Amino acid sequence: MDSDRPRSSGHGPQVTGVVTEVLPSALYRVRLDEGTKPIVAHIADRMDRNFIRILVGDRVRVELSVVDAGRGRIVGKL
Length: 78
Hints:
With 78 residues, the chain is mostly beta strands. The chain has one helix spanning 45-49; strands at residues 14-23, 27-32, 39-43, 59-64, 71-77. It is globular, with a radius of gyration of 13 Å.
């Protein structure tokens, strides 16, 4: 395996934000604290297995995708 190439399942940077909208198919629109445009995020499998509910207004920690900066994975509630 080539270690120079970014992996799609690799760990991206983690940032915090606020859920602004619940979308169909278990997706969420999250406004980041950095002030950039909102991203679309899904729940990490670990949180989904533990039945953690995400609602509009919740502060969350998001791991950004290394492939697409407009997508991410919600890895925790704050």
